[in-house]
Amino acid sequence: MATDCMNQLQSIVAVDVGNSRTKLGRFDRQTPASLGLPEPVETIAVGPSETGSGYEVAPLADWLAEMVAPGTPFFIGSVNRPGTAALQKFLREYDGGHWDNVRELVGGDLPIENRTNKPDRVGIDRLAAAVAACRFRRANTPTIVVDFGTAIKVDLVSNDGAFEGGAILPGVGTSAHALHTSTDVLPVVHLELNRKSPPSLGKDTKQAIEAGLYWGAVGAVRELIARHHDGLVTGPRVLVTGSTSPEMARLLGSPDYTVRYLPHLVMAGLAISAWQA
């Protein structure tokens, strides 16, 4: 789509296709920005269907019918190819194909310099979050972006606004699944990071696993932030996003840097990129 046409778009849907779920947000160009970032007017997150293929169709169909005008363009940032294919198929077939104006963004579409060794191999979610971080950050201030999901990403945006790379470690749910499948008797534990933090001293196996998962993630991310910080001349700002909470963001804080929780950082970065592509 040509740049002049792109700049005229008033509403778009930004789609963050992850490995555990897909998040969609409708962004209206004229909506006042919050904290310097475009904010989604409406969002929905959908998981895989019970059969393990495709999506939970009913909530997505209802959301489209209520919140998104037919013909509104969709801009997808994906780290899961089967998930993207399933969504594209659904949009082509749903309600006569009125929601089939879909474009999948790639790294080169995003307005950010990528200084990693293999720029084409960096996940689009990491780059999109970095784009949004650039919009939010103060001038000449490096930013560390922490994104909680199937994997936890701790990435650095330089003081001049370039993506420098970072670290990737298993997410809380991924670690919980590995504990269960790699042992004989440890139970499956589903730990939601948007709840109150658990005590560090578990009184049974389930509580002990919850404590290890939660506080292990806090400790690992804090250490990675500290290591990133060590290489900087100017103190960074830390932005936390993904499947977590303001409580978790608060626990990652330090006197050496400020921390903000911005739940839709990846979708905001996709929206910025769509309007600038």
Account of the protein in words:
This protein is α/β, with parallel strands linked by helices and 277 residues long. It folds into two domains: 3-104, ATPase, nucleotide binding domain (Nucleotidyltransferase, domain 5, 2-Layer Sandwich), CATH 3.30.420; 111-265, ATPase, nucleotide binding domain (Nucleotidyltransferase, domain 5, 2-Layer Sandwich). It contains eight helices and eleven strands. It has helices at residues 3-7, 57-67, 81-93, 124-136, 172-181, 205-230, 246-251, 265-276, and strands spanning 11-17, 22-28, 42-46, 74-78, 102-104, 113-114, 143-148, 151-157, 162-170, 237-242, 258-261. The strands form two sheets. It has a six-stranded mixed β-sheet, with helices on both faces. Strands 3-2-1-4-5 form a five-stranded mixed β-sheet, sandwiched between helices. Strand 8 and strand 9 form a beta hairpin. The protein is globular and about 55 Å long. The N and C termini lie close together (8 Å).
